[in-house]
From TrEMBL:
InterPro entries: MalM (IPR010794)
Domain of life: Bacteria
GO biological process, one term: carbohydrate transport
One GO cellular component, as annotated: periplasmic space
UniProt protein name: Uncharacterized protein
Species name: Vibrio hepatarius
Name of a matching Pfam family: MalM
Amino acid sequence: MDIEMKKYLTLLLSGMSLIGCASSDDLSLKQNILPLQTEVCCESASHFPWFRLQQNQDLDFELNASSPVNQFDGSKSYFSAFTFAQQSGLVEIRLRSLMLDGEVAIPQVELLDSEFNVVKTIDDAFTVKFSDAFAKNRYELTEKVDTVKTPYMIVYVKTSELGKKVVVPHPAKIRAQESGEPMPIVTDPTYLASNNGHFSLSVETITLSGYNQKSLVEAKPEEVAVVQKPAQPAIQAIPETQSYYHNAIRQAVESNNIDKALSLLDEAKALNIEGAQEVFVRAVNAK
């Protein structure tokens, strides 16, 4: 990082210290409103930043201010878009939305056909699962998907639930119920329904599709915030990808998420996306 950029970051981080004075409710309200103030990423679903899944895969990802935004059910939401493996037929997916830091994204899923028409919307099928050896408190969905009929999947937030309080039993109460012991006097964890969320997705291929039975949109650089070692992205950047990274870097700086902005900047450089550093510097300077 050059001297000029360090100077801007120092000034910006000094200003960020004032944010600690804001209440958690204020910050939650701000993050829930943010997608409404953000332009949609794409003209149509065919232009979404699709992430190509493998036949069998486990991955973690987030929906936050660095995610693309689009209109769903009359309201804007962050989203992640996935395309199933070309040779997968019937697959079983397990999607979890984790309850962390007093917040949770109540998820909604759309399954699309090869022409990007919504075939099925999944929302009420999610159930609340309590913390166990596999994951923390979460919303969880297990679903079988015929990927020949619906090769595309979109995960976004159920905006009608924003601000809702989700209360789950304290682990001590669950243990007492299971063991028959007296019920302890403890406070149940409460989570606020948010536009931001931490997700895990598991895909298992059960049957294979026939050769060339399923055609998919051309793979684009992996633009989902996946918490695992990603495959080597394509070097050639397309205009949509350039626009996505420029907007994501600006939004990360504007929301004072400098670590995310720098991470996006590194990704953009790796993809040979022109103008990414200039966008970052201008965004910091504007702060």
